[in-house]
Design brief:
This protein is α/β, with parallel strands linked by helices. Among the domains are: 147 residues, Alpha-Beta Horseshoe (Leucine-rich repeat, LRR (right-handed beta-alpha superhelix)); 34 residues, no CATH class. The chain is built from seven helices and eleven strands. The strands form three sheets. It has a seven-stranded mixed sheet. Strands 8-9 form a two-stranded antiparallel ribbon. The protein is elongated.
Length: 281
């Protein structure tokens, strides 16, 4: 009896899904699956959706305001650029979205996502992602949630309906890139000193904050032409470390270096040879 009830329940869900899809295809006038670029399935009471692989050119998908708990139906939709999954019952998105490399807009707010690290890891491959909503999820209660997302997903420009500022990017860098901060402290304008890198024990995300770079207005990373002075010399060191590398080459005149036989025959102490050292930035 239980198996029969389950089969009926699945049939009902599949019927609801098919009806919603067919309705949208009719409204948009699509006759072939390959022509489907937009699909609106919001507010249909859907708990699960069969694979959407037949719409392999799908670019815009609304599945918000349903009861979706699983996203495996998206595994073949590589062309998606906008995806609206807000107001569902998602608890984990691991392995479901990382293939969406061209996605630009992703709404995941008002779900039940709890693990911030796993969620952000899934989104790291989205190099085109510009707009992201994660608010009204348990993971958003983390004290450093916003800075962690900004640091991990540098392409995002609008996070939770709020623009990402340059000051936030700088704060995120110094809060989570502890290793780079330690390296910067060991640099002294062209001279390298031996300074061990510090390691952090515990969570890979909970790192002690480093000093925040107070960058003059208008000066951005990678801008070699901007000569705005810094109030703190250490800030200049940091900017230089981010934008340039130092190479050093040393050589001697081997024509003036005696061979082993010459040293044995002359039987005298060899004088130190002049070494030429050149540095490039």
């Amino acid at each position: 009896m239980a198996a029969a009830a389950s089969a009926i329940s699945y049939a009902d869900k599949f019927t609801v899904y098919c009806q919603a899809v067919e309705k949208q295809l009719k409204i948009c006038g699509f006759k072939r699956n390959v022509d489907v670029l937009v699909l609106y399935l919001a507010g249909q009471g859907l708990r699960s959706i069969p694979s959407l692989s037949r719409f392999h050119r799908l670019r815009y998908l609304w599945i918000n305001n349903n009861k979706i708990q699983d996203l495996t139906f998206l595994m073949k939709n590589y062309c998606l650029t906008e995806l609206y999954l807000n107001n569902n019952e998602l608890t984990d998105i691991s392995g479901a979205l990382k293939h969406l490399r061209v996605l630009q807009i992703l709404f995941l707010h008002n779900n039940q996502l709890k693990n911030l690290g796993k969620t952000v890891k899934e989104l790291k491959g989205m190099i085109s992602l510009q707009t992201l909503n994660l608010f009204d999820n348990p993971l958003a209660q983390d004290p450093d949630y916003r800075l962690y997302v900004i640091y991990s997903l540098p392409s995002v420009q609008l996070l939770d309906r709020k623009s990402v500022t340059q000051r936030e990017r700088e704060s995120a860098f110094h809060l989570y890139n502890r290793e780079r901060s330690c390296v910067v402290q060991s640099i002294a304008f062209g001279k390298r000193v031996n300074a061990p890198l510090e390691t952090t024990v515990g969570s890979s995300r909970c790192i002690q904050p480093a000093r925040r770079l107070m960058m003059p207005s208008g000066c951005e990373f990678g801008n070699h032409t901007n000569k705005v002075p810094f109030e703190n010399p250490e800030d200049a060191v940091l900017l230089r470390a981010m934008t340039r590398s130092l190479m050093e080459f040393s050589s001697v005149d081997w024509n003036k270096v005696a061979t082993c036989q010459e040293r044995q025959l002359e039987n005298k102490v060899e004088e130190p040879h002049e070494k030429l050292t050149v540095q490039f930035r």
